[in-house]
Every structure is written in C-alpha cells, then in structure tokens.
Write a structure and sequence with these properties.
The chain has 255 residues and is α/β, with parallel strands linked by helices. Helices cover 24% and strands 27% of the residues. It has one domain: 4-Layer Sandwich (Metallo-beta-lactamase, Chain A). A hairpin with a 2-residue loop joins strand 10 and strand 11.
Length: 255
Amino acid sequence: MTAENDTFSINVIKTGESEVPAPEVYWMEGWNEWEKLSFHALLLRNSNMNFLINTGLPSDLTERNKAMVDFGGERCIFKPSDISKELNHLGVEPSEVNGIAFTPLQDYTTGGIQLFRNAKIYMDRKGWTEDIVAPSVRKHQPRNMFIPEQNLKYLMFDAWNRVVLFDSLFPYSIAPGLTVMWVGCHHRSSLAFQISTRSGNVIFSDCSFKRRNLEANIPIGIAENTLECLDTYSRFRGKGTFLSAYDPEIDGLEF
C-alpha cells in the first residue's frame, strides 16, 4: 500500500502560449503548417510538500520575442500568464512553495524563480553545467534565452544556499513519490519527472512537445539529439500517463 506522503496531487498550470512552424514540433514534417504550444508548470502537493516543476515565463520577454519574430514572425511571440494568480486560484502562495525544479533550463521555465523565496531549488548538475555555466560547444541561442541574466545572478548569489545540484543520469529521488532522470533530446538540461499519484504514475518531460511525438515515435523538430528522443519514448511508453510539456491538451489537468 502506498503511503499518503509517497503520492502527490497534480495541477497542470498553463504559464503561456505561442505558435511555431510545425517542423519545430515534428521532425521534418508539416511544412507550411503551424502548431499551437502551451507552456506549463506542474504543482505537486502532499502533506509534506508544495513542489513546483517550472516557474513560468519572465516578466520581460523583449529579448525572447525579438528572437521569435526573427525566427518565424509575429505569430511566434510568447504570451505569458501570471503564475502567481494561477497559484492563488489553487490556494497556494509563492511563499508556501518549498521546492522547485525545471525541465529544461530555459527562460520560459525559470522566469518566475525569484517569486519562490522559501523553496529549495533542484537542478541537474549536467544540465546546469552544459547549458549554463560551461557549455562545451557554442549554443544556437544566447545564454539569456536559457536563463535571464538577473535570474542567473540570483541563483549564483542570493539563492545559492538553497540550490541542490543532483546527478540524474540514474534516477534521482527528490522526495518519496517524486523521481527525476536526465533525458536530453531537446536540451542538455531536459529531464523527465516521474510522479506517483493515487491514480497512477505520471511522467512530465519536454523531450516530447505533444502527445503525437510519443504515440507516433516522431522526434521533436528542434532536438539536439533525435536518438535521445526515441530512446526516451521507448523507455516511458506504457509506464504511466505521459504529459508532453508543451501540449495544449494538458492545460488545466488534475490528478
């Protein structure tokens, strides 16, 4: 029998939206088509924890949206939602969140990090190193797209005593019922979170943008490594409810 503190309730929070050319979502498919994306945070709760996976988009999207317009035009602009308001609707104040993590380390997941002043900040050592502090190759995006400069300074100085760097090449247990492992595919900081709920195992990852990636075995179009996508799909298919990180179908889901 699973103990109450070994399971979580989950609320999927929409933190923003955009549209992108379809080949960004599906590898070499959908030319001249567009796909809607939603950005998400997951609020996990049990009697011990209020844990948040992703913290929403930054308040200043000037640099991000310039890059998106240059990439695909005005249609690609990121439109944020206020994560504080969404949490408030669920009865949770930012001060009550005691743990946060990200998949991947990007501006649209780390944007609200400074709201959560009482939370331990869990980051994968590999992703932190290879995407942020010491990338081995020149990235296709500037570091501000991975994490806004003010949030990077906040992490490295003001909040460093709350940072927990973990190694996730093998499954790492953040808490009973909450395990994370590295998957790659999209970014070097892309992770898969496995969450135990009363209705079964739930998996959340950005290695799959939409449900069809997993179901039809189609890598995401902006993968840094397509084989990592396929390996992850094979590993997790049939192992629980898989939540693809940018799929509008999961907006507002509860478990």
